[in-house]
Amino acid sequence: MKIKDNATAIKIINKVAIVTIIVNLILAIGKFLAGIFGKSTAMISDAVHSSSDVLSTLIVLVGARIAVKNEDKDHNYGHDKFESIASIMLAMLLFATALGLGYTGIKDIISASKGGSDYVKPTLLALIAAIVSIVVKEGMYWYTIFYAKKLDSQALKADAWHHRSDAFSSIAGFVGILGAMLGVYVLEGIATVLIALLIVKVSYDIVKVVIRQLTDHAAPEELVSKIYKTINEDEDVKNIDLLKTRISGSIIYVEAEIAVDSALNIVEAHAIAQRVHDKIEETFEEVKHIVIHVNPYEPSADIGAPFA
């Protein structure tokens, strides 16, 4: 169930951010030491990558905290889209990471084609550090995605995928270190390029979702159909003249025009609208607010159900 209480949401965001920062700092220090004593430049580079991940966590922290703030005089409809902005920034970091990995992978392939003369054979310590990094980063993915789903937070989902991209890069490091130890230098370059392409795909998927959130894209047709049917179930609703939806950040706004018996007075008509309003917001967690306008029922104006 999605958490809607702002205070609880902020506590969860803070907790995830603190855990992520601590884990990344510990990993960065551990990888750096393992890179030096394990004679692995790949592990030293991975250590720098882990330390830079603190920046992405801070972006998530700021964006997600602003997103859960209540409406104010300058933002009458809330701050949900700030999270989308944070997600865009994270997607850009992921893409930059992919470019860096791709460049490194191509260089390694070229070096390997020359006999691997630029390689220094690493030790078992570097290989163990790569395994630890893979396990920890994949664990951080599952930890972050768990809370991302609870909050329905696109920024936290993007950060979770950032953790997984780090796990993927550590897999490339593992393959490269093992390959170097065995004298098969080309393995790291091939694995790194493939992983870079996968991260590009992940960043593209994030951007695609965020663009929908920032451009008032309609809610999925399946959800709109369910909302329509729920409104139509009210016995006093004679017809649904209009039903519009728009995605804003991780939430949905709905606008509906319902037709009721023209003989009803304004108090009775308002009661029906309020009942429908409450039913929709109680039934659909993702709907933050629904605006309902009441029309007098005119049989000749029926438009019929817009969804099958």
Radius of gyration computed on alpha carbons: 26 Å
Distance between the termini: 28 Å
Number of helices: 8
Biggest β-sheet description: 3 strands, mixed
Strand arrangement in the largest pleated sheet: 1-2-3
Strand content: 5-15%
* Percent helix range: 55-70%
Q: Which structural class is indicated by helix and strand composition?
A: mainly alpha
Number of strands: 3
Mean pLDDT: 81
Low-confidence stretches at least 5 residues in length (pLDDT < 50)?
A: none
Task: Give the overall silhouette.
Answer: elongated
The SSE string, one letter per element, is HHHHHHHEEHE
Structure commentary:
The protein is mainly alpha-helical and 308 residues long. It contains eight helices and three strands, in the order αααααααββαβ. It has helices spanning 6-37, 41-67, 81-113, 124-151, 154-182, 186-214, 221-232, 266-283; strands spanning 239-248, 251-260, 287-296. A three-stranded mixed β-sheet has the order 1-2-3. Helix 8 links the parallel strand 2 and strand 3. Helix 1 packs antiparallel against helix 4, helix 2 (41-67) runs antiparallel to helix 5 and helix 3 (81-113) runs parallel beside helix 5 (154-182). The radius of gyration is 26 Å and the shape is elongated. The model has no long low-confidence stretch (mean pLDDT 81).
